[in-house]
Amino acid sequence: MALFWLSRTSRSRYLKPSLSYLSLIGNSEPTIFTPQSHPTVSPNPCHLNTLTQFHQWSPDFKEKFRFISVARFCISPGGVAKDEEKENCNSNRNNIKNSWIDLYLPTHVRPYAKLARLDKPIGTWLLAWPCMWSITLAAYPGHLPDLKMLTLFGCGALLLRGAGCTINDLLDRDIDTMVERTKSRPVASGVLTPFQGLCFLGFELLLGLGILLQLNNYSRILGASSLLLVFSYPLMKRFTFWPQAYLGLTFNWGALLGWAAVRGSLDHVAVVLPLYISGVFWTLVYDTIYAHQDKEDDLKVGVKSTALRFGDSTKEWITGFGIACISSLALCGFNSDIGWPYYAFLTAASGQLGWQIWTVDLSSRADCNRKFVSNKWFGVIVFSGILFGRLA
């Protein structure tokens, strides 16, 4: 009966911002009251542990109550919560939303899909774009890039990114339990055992091997050598304040591999090396912004990052990295004798990167994440410039 009443209330047009949150007052029937009439109860429904008898509710009832309470508090115009409290509420409300994994995949498959971060494709995009840049740049003037190679590298980016996340979660499972953003990951939360994660990693690497074997011999060796970076990257934050630089070396390996897959070797170092270096500096920009989300937790846990290394000087540092990234891309285009559209798109890419750096609020986790995700558009712009420059 209580569940029926609550579901009706959640759909009702009478759920106005002025409605107070729900609570249990000594019985199983939820009642509506105002904080003024019951001042002993916390007015913040994000603090569900203050509600009496909450542990006795059924899981479905708890979930519906939590959703309505958090939603009411976050939209209430009369709330007196601080900005950070509202941000936490919004974060909790977002966590309630089911991803496509929860909606469409079988229950036993979901933990593995989340382990591979299939519900968060931005990492795959960031890994794939340097590959796409390189493959398109390796195309001969006036020709479209090799569509087969673009497809193979797209699938490879998806698999390698998933494998990297799996390795990271296995090595960091003890750290992840102490960080708010990562404690719900499958291995850290105990949904998957380390052995299950290891078996899944083997499956991912096997599929990746199938893609690698379709490339030429030079590319196979070059691609296999990247595994050393992939396996060692998660350990870097324990030893250096520059794990973001190491990630740049790892994530942009495709800039070398893509060219070799098309041309058979790294025959134009003056073109390929600046492209690879530009990707490393790009990674230093976006992953430093990303690292600012966890800087408080990193301090408590004892791991390192460029966000902690730079501190209040972060914007000056990433501005320098951004300039180095654009300069390297310009040098790459000049050495490859690419057409003028490349430089027009490169100007637009500079604006997008500058917008990120100048407008990011490094004290806001939500804004850091928004700027981080926006880097997929930087990749699109650079790719478009290379494509039209080659066709020109």
Automatic annotation (TrEMBL):
Q: What is this protein called?
A: 4-hydroxybenzoate polyprenyltransferase, mitochondrial
EC number(s): the record gives 2.5.1.39
Q: Where in the cell is it found?
A: Membrane; Mitochondrion inner membrane
Entry keyword set: Isoprene biosynthesis, Membrane, Mitochondrion, Mitochondrion inner membrane, Transferase, Transmembrane, Transmembrane helix, Ubiquinone biosynthesis
Q: Which enzyme type, at the first EC level?
A: transferase
What does the similarity note say?
Belongs to the UbiA prenyltransferase family.
Taxonomy-wise, where does this protein's organism fall, top ranks first? Eukaryota, Viridiplantae, Streptophyta, Embryophyta, Tracheophyta
> Its membrane topology, per UniProt?
Multi-pass membrane protein
**Protein's organism:** Acer yangbiense
Has keyword DNA damage? no
Any one of the GO CC terms: mitochondrial inner membrane
